[in-house]
UniProtKB/TrEMBL annotation, chain B:
Entry keyword annotation includes Ion transport: no
Quaternary context: Immunoglobulins are composed of two identical heavy chains and two identical light chains; disulfide-linked.
UniProt name for this protein: IGL c6_light_IGLV1-44_IGLJ2
UniProt entry tagged with the keyword ATP-binding: no
InterPro entries: Ig-like_dom (IPR007110), Ig-like_dom_sf (IPR036179), Ig-like_fold (IPR013783), Ig_sub (IPR003599), Ig_V-set (IPR013106), IgV_Light_Chain (IPR050150)
Chain residue ranges for the region called Disordered: 1-26
Annotated GO CC locations: extracellular region; immunoglobulin complex; plasma membrane
Domain Ig-like: 1-91
Organism field: Homo sapiens (Human)
Domain of life where this protein originates: Eukaryota
Coiled coil (UniProt feature): none
Length: 122, 109
């Protein structure tokens, strides 16, 4: 079964750090780019970051650039998100998502994890 | 403020056809394909439509998508109670960043 399982969420004070993990199984992880998407309580979805299969290409939303770092370990079938200088507005459920490549120009997210909650509060 | 613009709510009665709009710009919808996601309460999003108008296996043909210029639409025909959910449009920007709409809460009356 294709599966993504996030972990590492929790309560952290403003200015603090947290590292999220996403464990992949049931597919060849090293062949896929991967993404993080977040959803603040009662709000919509927000794309956070993407990383190519070999880590050569990395992109961030402007809202997290310079504070968050995406990485992966293909040997461990794992995706990570290091979050530093956390702010109250970073409070959200964080999902990792696998792409479905439908052509050379784009992809959609066909596999999502269950999400892990990050709460930034003093 | 989301990059793509959706109406916050939509509604219909069982059996009706409803449409949800999604407006973007030349740098996202205007030059890239659109995907749609359905999110039931308390669950992760589910891919509903990809590449403007393609349905993944298992998605009923009651769901259809279209795109014209810098706008896209999701149509749901033969509305059913289980269609009550939040719907999000999404696209890639020319800067290779993902963008989502703010979401539309669909209520089946």
């Amino acid at each position: 079964e294709v599966q993504l399982v996030e972990s590492g969420g929790g309560l952290v004070k403003p200015g603090g750090s947290l590292r999220l993990s996403c464990a992949a199984s049931g597919f060849t992880f090293s062949s896929y780019s991967m993404n993080w998407v977040r959803q603040a309580p009662g709000k919509g979805l927000e794309w956070v970051s993407s990383i190519s299969s070999s880590s050569s290409y990395i992109y961030y939303a402007d809202s997290v650039k310079g504070r968050f770092t995406i990485s992966r370990d293909n040997a461990k079938n794992s995706l990570y998100l290091q979050m530093n200088s956390l702010r109250a507005e970073d409070t959200a459920v964080y999902y990792c998502a696998r792409p479905y490549y439908y052509d050379s120009s784009g992809y959609a997210f066909d596999i999502w994890g269950q999400g892990t909650m990050v709460t930034v509060s003093s | 403020q989301s990059v793509l613009t959706q109406p916050p709510s939509a509604s219909g009665t069982p059996g009706q056809r409803v449409t949800i709009s999604c407006s973007g710009s030349s740098s996202n919808i205007g030059s890239n394909t659109v995907n749609w996601y359905q999110q039931l309460p308390g669950t992760a999003p589910k891919l509903l439509i990809y590449s403007n108008n393609q349905r993944p296996s298992g998605v009923p043909d009651r769901f259809s998508g279209s795109k014209s210029g810098t706008s896209a639409s999701l149509a749901i025909s033969g509305l059913q109670s289980e269609d009550e959910a939040d719907y999000y449009c999404a696209a890639w920007d020319d800067s290779l960043k993902g963008v989502f709409g703010g979401g539309t809460k669909l209520t089946v009356l």
